[in-house]
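Continuing the series of single-chain predictions for the mutant panel. This is the parent chain; the variants come on the following pages.
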Amino acid sequence: SHRGGLSSSRGGRGLLPYKGKRPKTDHEKAFGRVEILKGPYGNYHNYYERRHKSNNIFACDKRVKLIKPAWIKDKVVIDVGCNEGLIGIELAKEYLAKEMRGYDVDEQLIEKAGRNLEKAMAEVRKSQPPTMDAQLLALENCSFETGNILWAMLECASVDTVICLSVTKWLHMCHGDEGLRLLFKFFSNVLKPGGILVLEPQPWRSYTGAKKKKELKRYFNDKTLKDVNSLKIRPNMFPALLQDAHPPISSSYGFQLIHSEGPTQEDAAQEGFKNRQVFVFKKL
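Parent structure:
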């Protein structure tokens, strides 16, 4: 794992399809190539290179703009499926988290998160005004850990805010409905009463689209990823399931939906996180 940055743990209208090698867009020239899948858990490398159109996450990621400072400031926060740690680092720095912990199954992504954290700390140190001391402390209290969140050993009612963005599809396809219920139970167990869950599930068409991706074919063939048609729970059922007083198999998850935000027309025209809905729940 990493703590404090140190190791411890389409064509124009009327044009024919382009048959040769596609030229890079200006954005790709500036920020790099499209993401590369490194495993069945959706552990994409360079994931944000295409999705974030600038280095200002608050300006280019509507999901981050939805997160209120009060859910982060002086709070213990975990970022489930943190990828390169960019969102957690910026939230911790700008909103002064008491503690920010990122979890991801991909060790290389966690190592990159550690390097991103070191870079953020170096930038804050350069700025030097005393007002930056709190930002530096918040970054020093960031940590990143490799592992499957389902097996994470966290104390009950020890977390104020859980952030889980673009993760549920992958866990669901790997571990099935039972695994999804385990994830929801994990959220319920680790959050304090009044705690916040920010959840952005991929829609069902994203599941069915996964079956068509060449890079995922081998994982479906060897049954690492389950046939999506075998899944009984669908993403549009998640809010009702989290709020249901008597969910099947498990005891109550105990959540109340306090906010949801769907895609705007502007979002639908963008390539980033278009057509995604974000839900905010409070733990009762």
